[in-house]
Specification:
globular; three-stranded antiparallel beta sheet; about 5% strand; about 230 residues; two-stranded antiparallel sheet; mainly alpha
Length: about 230
């Protein structure tokens, strides 16, 4: 499959099996909606698409899989809403006519900088969260439908948590030779990359995982307090 690396395909099959086992075809449909929409938007934004590896699949779908195995539709839906909101925000934000601003300081940053937000990207993220909320409401397993607002709120919270962690805790490296900056520790000019901000262990996949876990928790809490 062109949207997944070989190990990503194995991970995706595992996540899909867990969601189907816990929530049946409705959960699988929600997961598929996230995966297809996110992959199509990535292809639209880059012109060539992107192949998710196993770490990326687990970062975006692992929390939903765990929620499904625990039999919690709101937790799984909240996690997928957070993943969709972040993905839609990132890909649609790439079309913004104005450069992004860092969420914490509001200074202008280059496109693709973690923690950078745009009005277009934020609107896209809101749309992704609402779309997943609506689908979760229309396709619930027996026992009651979660409110659209609750799932969407979980998605929006996850999206902003992702941006906040990206702007503060995520590792940022600078090349000792050319001063180019990257979120990866891989060398650029055959010179060591030095960490200038954040934590080495907090990369983009860890940030995505944290955001989806938060989405799952908010989705679950919202269902507990809803009438």
């Amino acid at each position: 499959m062109r949207w997944l690396t070989p190990d990503g395909l194995v991970a995706a099959l595992g996540v899909g099996a867990a969601v189907y086992w816990g929530l049946g075809w409705r959960g699988a449909a929600l997961l598929l909606a996230f995966f297809v929409s996110g992959s199509l938007l990535t292809q639209l934004a880059t012109g060539r698409g992107g192949r998710r590896n196993a770490r990326q699949v687990i970062a975006n779908g692992g929390a939903a899989a765990l929620g499904a195995l625990l039999g919690s539709w709101p937790a799984a839906a909240g996690a997928l809403a957070a993943a969709a909101a972040d993905t839609w925000a990132t890909e649609l934000g790439s079309f913004s006519p104005v450069p992004p601003r860092l969420l914490t300081t509001w200074e202008r940053v280059t496109r693709g900088t973690s923690g950078g937000v745009t009005a277009l990207g934020t609107a896209g993220g809101l749309g992704g969260a609402l779309a997943m909320g609506a689908l979760a409401h229309l396709l619930p397993p027996p026992g009651g439908a979660p409110g659209i607002a609750g799932v969407a709120t979980a998605g929006i919270a996850g999206m902003f948590a992702d941006s906040l962690l990206g702007a503060t805790g995520q590792g940022l490296y600078e090349c000792g030779a050319c001063a180019a900056r990257s979120e990866r520790a891989d060398t650029i000019c055959h010179e060591p990359m030095r960490l200038i901000r954040g934590r080495r262990w907090l990369d983009n996949d860890a940030v995505n995982l944290a955001a989806t876990v938060l989405g799952a928790c908010i989705g679950l809490l919202g269902s507990r307090f809803s009438p």
